[in-house]
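Hey, why these numbers?
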Amino acid sequence: MSVLAVSNLCKRYDRFLLDNVSFALKKGTITILFSTHITSDLDKCADNIIYIQQGKVLANSDMASFLGQYKVLEFSDEQLTDDLRSKLIGYKQTKHGYRALIKSADVRHTSEKVTNADLEAIMIHMEKE
């Protein structure tokens, strides 16, 4: 197995790399280590995520498991209780209330709007924390 580490690629080389090694990734004959904040690249080719923040490994799992750990919650001022606030990760005010990341295990059957979190939402909210 070969390992290729990449960081801060220009968009032109980034596209070349993704286009030309995708077949090797599918066969499992190569490992690419991306150090990036560009989640669209990771969405296209990542099988595993190691999430590092300020030198600490916050997560190390396969992509599906990582994404499955979180939900995005949208809620109003009236729904923001102290109990809910304690479970939120990096919430922000929006035009219609609030939007936040929450662990899937903390989601209850409530009137808040709950959607699956994508990699970009997880990164944005975790960095606001």
